[in-house]
Amino acid sequence: MVWIEAVCQQRHYPWPGRLRNAPAAKWLAQHITGLALCDDAQDAADEITDAHKRVLRVIDRPAFRQYQGQCEICQGDLYGYRDADKITCAQCSEVIRKDVNDRRLANQLEDKLCTANELVVVIADRFGATIKPKTVHDLAYRKTNPILVRGSTYDEQKLYRAGDVFAELRKRKVIA
């Protein structure tokens, strides 16, 4: 905003009003010649670049490693970045292709017995879809293509095979 004010005062441009970041950057880009002709214009680039870096530090979160299952070699915990191609085991230094590991985890997950609440979290994490526990319970009560309740926990929560729920949700195009 300081440089917009300087351009307007020194070059006699009409005041655009208080602008948010994106419109202010667009206004400065459209009036770059006026900015270049201002006193102390040589400081503009440094100050604007510094402000941009400060904003990025505030809004850009650092990439965190995420749990990627257990290593097939040493059974140690694997952690890797979501967009990485390879994962290196911290214990045995084995390098594992992430796509192969993801398929292995997906196959293991298909056979797991989970409560409806656990499935809600798994579906949000693995598929990016938001469902409610009631959706899972309703799948077990439908007359057409029902999923089976495979047991219950000690506190009477019903258990469902994750693969059955995934298959039904894929049929209904809730998940891909």
Q: How big a fraction of the residues is strand?
A: 5-15%
- How many distinct folded domains? 3
Which blocks of ≥5 consecutive residues have pLDDT under 50? none
Q: Main beta sheet, described?
A: 3 strands, antiparallel
Q: By helix and strand content, what is the structural category?
A: alpha+beta
Q: What is the residue-averaged pLDDT? A: 88
Q: Based on DSSP secondary structure assignment, what is the total number of beta strands? A: 7
User: What letter string, H or E per element, gives the SSE order?
Assistant: HHHHEEEEHEHHEEH
Helical coverage, percent range: 40-55%
CATH-defined architecture of the largest domain: Orthogonal Bundle
CATH class designation of the largest domain = Mainly Alpha
**What integer value in Å does the Rg equal?**
27 Å
* CATH domain fold name of the largest domain: Arc Repressor Mutant, subunit A
Shape: elongated
Structure report:
This protein has eight helices and seven strands. With about 180 residues, it is of the alpha+beta class. It has three domains: about 1-60, no CATH class; about 65-100; about 110-170, Arc Repressor Mutant, subunit A, CATH 1.10.10. Helix 6 packs across helix 7. The chain is elongated.
